[in-house]
Fold:
Amino acid sequence: MTSKEFEHIAFGLRSQLMQIAMRFCRDKDDAEDIVQEVMLRLWIRREELGHNVTALACKATRNLCVSWWRKKQVKRIVPLVDDMLVDESTPVDKQLIANEQMEQLQQCIEQLTRSQQRLIKLMLFDGISVQEIAAITGMTPRSASTILSTAKRKLMEAMK
Structure:
């Protein structure tokens, strides 16, 4: 595909891709970034593109939107334990709140299954990574990650 052909196709696609991105993002700047990234990827592979560029561009836009959404979800996750750590210089009222939160966390952890309890304690209190937890427990990293993900979700629901 020549540069002129690509420009002609890209001009027509842009509004369609923006609509897809806006459905996911609801923010014009984020949608613009996603569409620009798709266009860049298409431009890099313009010589390899076939006739059905529209379907490929739409699929790429949806995939990037999903990736964008997942990144946004990760940023929204609040560390469970970091906010609860206090030292002697922390004001008394904050120490009391942190202690209450820690007790609530302990109670919520007790409601998990034994394997979830074991893995979440290793991760939260010992600071061990998923890879290390898998090695310690003899699980595959994927299994450990799945159990931890379920445990974290249950904890977040219980802590609300």
